[in-house]
# Entry
Amino acid sequence: MEVDKLADQVSAIEKAVSNGTKVPEVQITTLIEMLMRQAIKLDSISTEGDASAQKNLQGKRVQKCVETLDALKLSNGKVKPVVVTTKWETFDPPPTTAHWEFFD
# Structure
């Protein structure tokens, strides 16, 4: 269940970065550390049979999440923050000279 929660957080960060939102690097690093702790817990569990296969699947899942976060950390650094202002730019309207006046 813990890996599921962390994987959901990875998905949320992935979605935010793909939408152009800059995620604090500390948030990504913390999530990587939490995933690594889960990997250590998985390694310390002794299993046999189907439980061993399940443990291996969870281990691969944790590894994939960490790899995803590493890639996101790089692309997140390239995201330029979007600046939103409430001051609108105005443009001067084009001259109101009639088209046929150019053919005199």
Remarks:
- The chain has a mean pLDDT of 82.
- The CA atoms of residues 5 and 11 lie 10 Å apart.
